[in-house]
Design brief:
The complex is a heterodimer of chains A (about 675) and B (about 250). Chain A is an alpha+beta fold. Chain A is built from 18 helices and 19 strands. In chain B, strands 2-1-5-3-4 form a 5-stranded mixed β-sheet. A two-stranded antiparallel ribbon of chain B has the order 6-7. In chain B, α5 crosses α8 (about 235-250). The chains are: A alpha+beta (about 675), B alpha+beta (about 250).
């Protein structure tokens, strides 16, 4: 379709990016001083983009809703960052990282973008080390790697369990250098509430100062959205409380297409919900599945006894346990990809085997790992005939060294000792692969409006591999956007300062103010959270780990109804011109209530199972793969890019057909 | 265990210009499994439903890493537990019938903006003064493994770098000193070869900015280390002092 031009350069896959960079227009250093760029969001993508653009000489205005750019939710990423360095000499290469990412995404991502991602991955590590990011090292002083997410090489760089934090602090330090030089003007505690278009181009934003409530106009020659994912549409997720879709949704309503909203990653190892008051969910790193075995009781009587406290999990013999992943997937066992592990847990819990009061938890058991490591250590230390308790002590020490901080975190939250009793885990919404549609240059369907990081859709297809989110954020911000945006801005060197006095700014500001004023004046009967929780419940039940046509249709109707009720009966205390967290939430939830409906519509339209999107109607009917997800490459090898036309339900579908020239499409099998 | 009924004494302040005061609230049926902030959510939902103004407080990740939450609970930054932020503090640390005092982090350099929300932008300005290594993002720096760094130094740099910038050290210190925070950043770079080139200017500029912001001096009471949710060690302050002295001699 003509509307969607991915602008993927011609030529062989491996030369595309280099050739593209060699031929796009540049802006000369003296002219960069005349150009302003707005960046919304200061996580890995926005932070790195702000710093690099400022370094190049552009005048950057960066916005974040937190009190400092250092607090963006990239900070919470635990595991690591992939890069095709091949430091371990295990045969890794740019091609392999590209291949793993496309396959992991279940062949629903754009080949050229993913190849570029793999290509620049190595630069990221060089750059971060030069910035003083303290990655883990081995005793020879060289960088250490761990393996991750079921791939066949060790390419994940890490900084303890706080890799996201260290990478973000690296980007933040690069920003600080530019703030000190006056090249970045930082707007903390500011939230973008709309984008402003002039003559079809993005020329600024309307932002609210969250401290004073003042509505501000900011102009620029280009606007970059780096506002992260929309997992909080489910209310409960591993996202931060403030994480929201508003920037992405506002630009969608102003003409940016929204791609694949239904692609959501539901991470299998999170701490289960404990009650209705729950405000968010906590992830336990995927690395735990390397040593933990997942199970539920085989018999429903035991489930009942455990729930009632008459039995403990450790009372059950091996024969009384169902290690369902090992049973169903003998080849990969507990190390199946995230989407498969999550669905299997849900299947057991739906069948009534959940092991806590809510019925939504399975065990992750380290007892056999402790024994295995203990015996190994006894052998290494030449201890003959070790006692069971000696083996336990030796093994526990190894498990503690590997996962100590995670075990401690678990114990703080759940108040149970995971060395003595199995952990309880359950899947939770963690990442959204879908997002604003962008071309190869990371520009949306609105000229001058860019979208980077988790907020765009481009690199992870229908499922993201572990340790790839950090890679994409920094690749976009440090190494892709700063080049591609120059091609566009080269046309703006004579434009001069964009005025904020025009009718477009006037109009956008008026709309924003009207909406805020509605919220504080509407004395309805329900809090914002009341609606957010209800929305989350619909999303989880009907658009969660497994989806079917009937449920999705119901979800669309229910979300619409809830949205209408929200606009009648929501109650927001306080005033517009003050620090008012409830007012902030109201705006975000209003946008989630629209996105949710498009999400369901997208899931309904995609009548295949792929990656994190599982349609109950599309499963293998016989053979070894019976009951497993069935992808349909013939009819669905495309990106769904939705155009806003007034109501989420009326969004128009545009298809970007996906071509795979350098990779063969295969059905994933983990049996 | 049955649920708890609690009395909360909370600092309420309309904005930075208004005077604040302690106000009493009751919450009931609080589960021991709730986090402290979830208990605050319960209170706020109750206030909203009664048409009253909810209590403003900073929070975001709710998993102890963003550093946004900042309450002073029963006289302790992040409350009675150790090694946790307020969002990781659980109600099982309290008993039925308890009265809990909740105040903002207090320091001259952290003015209150509303209720429990304080302005910590002074921390950002200290980082602007020197919390970085001047390297452009060209992607053409040398290969990451060209310069080996001893594991011990890298691990120590990491320990210092885990600071989340919450400000508990300042709130806890009787002098409202920011030495632990600044020491952590200075230490991270001082322990790495990449940080050496700008070491002299960095420590001088960061310390100068710290003084300009109105933070107090360090008198080695060590309270900051006790309350730090990330276990940043007093050693970082000693290292910063050494760096500062060396820088002063160099001039």
């Amino acid at each position: 379709m003509a509307v969607l031009d991915s602008k993927v350069p011609k030529g062989p896959l491996k030369d595309k990016w280099t050739n593209h960079k060699n031929h796009i227009n540049l802006v000369n250093p003296a002219n960069k001083r005349l150009i302003d760029v707005i960046v919304v969001g200061t996580g890995l993508a926005g932070g790195s983009a702000s710093a690099t653009l400022a370094e190049l000489g552009y005048n950057v205005k960066a916005f974040c809703y937190q009190d400092s750019p250092r607090r963006a939710h990239s900070i919470a990423a635990q595991g690591g960052i992939n890069a095709a360095k091949n430091y371990q000499g295990d045969g890794d290469s740019t091609y392999r990282l590209f291949y793993d990412t496309v396959k992991g995404g279940d062949y629903r991502s754009r080949e050229a973008n993913v190849y570029r991602l793999a290509e620049v991955s190595a630069n990221i590590i060089d750059q971060c080390v030069a910035q003083g990011v303290p990655f883990a090292r081995d005793y020879g002083g060289l960088l250490d790697n761990r393996s991750f997410g079921g791939v066949l090489v060790s390419r994940t760089f890490y900084a303890k369990g706080q890799t996201g934090q260290q990478l973000l602090l690296g980007a933040y330090s690069a920003m600080n250098r530019q703030i000190a030089r006056g090249k970045i003007e930082m707007f903390n505690r500011h939230e973008m509430l709309d984008v402003v278009k002039i003559d079809g181009k993005a020329r600024g934003i309307i932002a609210r100062n969250l401290v004073t409530g003042e509505i501000e106009r900011h102009s620029a020659h280009a606007v970059v959205i780096a506002s992260g994912g929309y997992g909080n549409v489910f209310f409960l997720s591993t996202n931060a409380m403030g994480s929201n879709v508003s920037a992405g949704w506002k630009i969608h309503k102003k003409g940016a297409f929204f791609a694949n909203p239904c692609y959501t990653q539901i991470h299998p190892t999170c701490i289960p919900r404990s009650g209705d008051y729950q405000s968010k969910l906590t992830l336990m790193s995927e690395s735990l599945r390397n040593d933990g075995r997942i199970w539920v009781p085989k018999n429903l009587e035991d489930v009942k006894a455990i729930r009632e406290g008459r039995k403990k999990p450790t009372d059950l013999s091996e024969e009384e346990r169902d290690y369902y992943l090992e049973r169903r997937y003998p080849a990969f066992g507990n190390l199946v990809p995230r989407d498969v592990a999550s669905r299997a847990a849900k299947e057991r819990c739906d069948a009534g085997y959940g092991v806590n009061a809510t019925g939504e938890a399975v065990y992750l058991d380290f007892a056999s790992a402790i024994t295995r490591y203990g015996k190994e250590q006894a052998k290494i230390q030449n201890i003959s005939n070790p006692s069971a308790s000696k083996i336990y002590d030796l093994g526990k020490a190894i498990v503690e060294a590997k996962y100590g901080n995670l075990f401690q975190m678990y114990e703080k939250i759940v108040d149970e000792n995971p060395y003595e009793t199995p952990m309880m885990i359950y899947p939770a919404v963690h990442y959204t692969m879908g997002g604003v549609w962008v071309d190869y240059n990371l520009m949306t369907t609105v000229p001058g409006l860019y979208c980077i990081g988790e907020a765009n859709f481009s690199d992870h297809g229908a499922n993201r591999l572990g340790a790839s989110a950090l890679m994409q954020g920094l690749a976009d911000g440090y190494f892709v956007l700063p080049y591609t945006i120059g091609d566009y801005l080269s046309g703006d060197i004579r434009t001069g300062r964009i005025s904020t006095e025009g009718p477009e700014f006037e109009e956008a500001e008026k709309e924003v103010k009207e909406r805020l004023s509605f919220f504080v004046n509407n004395k309805g009967g329900h809090s914002v959270d009341y609606y957010h929780k209800k929305l989350g419940n619909i999303m989880w039940e009907k658009c969660g780990m497994s989806r079917n046509a009937q449920g999705l249709k119901e979800a669309m109707a229910e979300i619409k109804e809830l949205r209408e009720d929200f606009w009648k009966n929501v109650s927001v205390p306080g005033k517009m011109d003050e620090l008012n967290p409830e007012l902030e939430k109201a705006g975000r939830v209003a946008d989630f209530l629209e996105l949710g409906e498009l999400f369901a519509k997208d899931a309904l339209a995609r009548e295949e199972s792929c990656g994190g999107h599982f349609r109950e109607e599309s499963v293998e009917l016989d053979g070894e793969q019976k009951g497993e997800a069935k992808r349909n490459d013939e009819d669905f090898a495309f990106v769904s890019a939705w155009e806003y036309t007034g109501e989420p339900a009326d969004a128009v579908l545009h298809k970007e057909e996906l071509e795979f020239n350098d990779i063969e499409l295969k059905q994933r099998s983990y049996k | 265990m049955s649920n708890m009924n609690l009395t909360l004494k909370i600092w309420r302040q309309k904005d930075s210009k208004s005077k604040g005061k302690m106000v009493d609230y009751k919450v009931s049926d609080i589960s021991e499994h709730m986090s402290f902030l979830e208990m605050m959510d319960v209170l706020n939902e109750q206030l909203i439903n009664k048409g009253e103004d909810p209590v403003a407080f900073d929070h975001d990740c709710r998993e102890g890493i963003c550093g946004m939450c900042s309450m002073f609970i029963n006289g302790e930054a992040h409350g009675p537990d150790r090694g946790v932020t307020t969002c990781q503090l659980h109600m099982r640390m309290f008993k039925d019938g308890d009265t809990i005092t909740i105040e903002p982090f207090r320091a001259k350099a952290f003015p209150v903006m509303k209720d429990l929300v304080v302005d910590r932008s002074s921390f950002d300005r200290i980082q602007h003064a020197g919390g970085y290594i001047s390297v452009n993002t060209s992607g053409n720096t040398q290969d990451a493994n060209a310069l080996p760094i001893a594991k011990e130094a890298a691990d120590k740099a990491m320990d210092a770098a885990t600071c989340i910038g919450c400000g508990a050290c300042v709130a806890t210190c009787k002098n409202a000193s920011a030495m632990l925070f600044v020491g952590a950043k200075v230490s991270q770079y001082a322990l790495l070869p990449q940080g050496q080139v700008e070491a002299t200017e960095r420590v001088q500029n960061m310390v100068k900015q710290m003084d300009l912001e109105g933070f107090g001096n360090c008198t080695n009471t060590g309270a900051c280390e006790v309350e730090c949710p990330k276990g940043i060690s007093l050693e970082t302050i000693a290292r910063m002092n050494r760096e500062y002295l060396t820088a002063s001699i160099k001039g």
